[in-house]
Write a structure and sequence with these properties.
The chain has helices at 3-20, 24-27, 227-230, 235-247, and strands spanning 28-32, 37-40, 45-50, 56-64, 66-74, 83-90, 98-104, 113-119, 128-130, 141-147, 151-156, 159-165, 180-188, 208-220, 249-252. By secondary structure, it is mostly beta strands. The protein has one domain: Jelly Rolls. The longest helix is centred in the first third of the chain and has 18 residues, at 3-20. The protein is globular. The termini are far apart. It binds 2-acetamido-2-deoxy-beta-D-glucopyranose. 2-acetamido-2-deoxy-beta-D-glucopyranose is lined by residues 104, 106, 110-111, 113, 193-195.
Length: 272
């Protein structure tokens, strides 16, 4: 092939891959909701809706052992109390691994709670919750999960909100051996979501709708050689993380001594 042809071919491949990396048709299936989940605009937009009879959800076609997934989400506007919008990773079986973003709705004007958790081999109990520093219903914002053998980093618009490090050396389980599928859903959880279940879903406002776009999956089921595989946080990211945790974190299992009277979980020690 002439250099020009090679260049043209490479450019074409790059175009094909970057296009498919942001296409719901190629990356996910609408898994449930009987028509309430819709892929629109040639795969560029996905909407989930919830009414009294059902919510809806979608899932990635592939499972990934490690990777980085970015998703733009615009949450249910107005009175979203009782609703939960999710974006998470989960493996199969009774001793599953899982990494969660769950957005707990609220009454108009009251803040959403971003609930996060990490499960390894079916055991979670590692919740951290945050308020956001913007209105997540006004525009799309990017929520990302990066997970590699050393750490899990959750970011919002590029700002890290949580890092869960591999602390296997001090006996803490870490999710690194089970490939996970990506899931997203909108469902009713008014028995617990808003103010601990006190505020119920207002069905007169249904159907509720959340929108997803610009999905970007860089993942692998074998041993990868991409930048996310070895990524860690630089000093700027560490400073951003501290800013979020100081100003927007509303619950941290690491400081919940009542819940762990035997002592806080090992990975929470400052040296871990
Ligand atoms: C809803 O708003 C109330 C009042 O501001 C707040 O205490 C609560 O954390 C918010 N989030 C949820 C999910 O209840």
């Amino acid at each position: 092939m002439s250099p020009f042809k090679i260049f043209f071919f490479a450019a074409l491949l790059a175009a094909v891959f970057s296009f498919s990396a942001a296409d719901f048709n190629s990356d996910v299936n609408v898994a449930w909701g009987n028509g309430r989940g819709k892929i629109l605009n040639n795969g560029q937009l996905l909407t989930l809706s919830l009414d009294r009879s059902s919510g809806s959800g979608f899932q990635s076609k592939t499972e990934y052992l490690f990777g980085k997934i970015d998703m733009q989400i615009k949450l249910v506007p107005g009175n979203s109390a009782g609703t939960v919008t999710t974006f998470y990773l989960k493996s199969e079986g009774s001793t599953w691994d899982e990494i969660d973003f769950e957005f707990l709705g609220n009454m108009s004007g009251d803040p959403y709670t971003l609930h996060t958790n990490v499960y390894t081999q079916g055991k979670g109990d590692k919740e951290q919750q945050f308020y956001l520093w913007f209105d997540p219903t006004a525009n799309f914002h990017t929520y990302s999960i990066l997970w590699n053998p050393q750490r899990i980093i959750l970011t919002v618009d590029g700002t890290p909100i949580r890092e869960f490090k591999n602390s296997e050396s001090i006996g803490v389980l870490f999710p690194k051996s089970k490939p996970m599928r990506m899931y997203a859903s909108l469902w009713n959880a008014d028995d617990w979501a808003t103010r601990g279940g006190l505020v119920k879903t207002d069905w007169s406002k249904a159907p509720f709708m959340a929108s997803y776009r610009s999905i970007k999956i860089e993942g692998s089921s074998c041993s990868p050689s991409s930048s996310w595989y070895t990524q860690q946080m630089d000093a700027t990211s560490q400073a951003r993380l501290r800013w979020v945790q100081k100003n927007y974190m509303i619950y941290n299992y690491c400081t919940d001594r009542k819940r762990f009277p035997q002592g806080i979980p090992r990975e929470c020690a400052p040296s871990a």
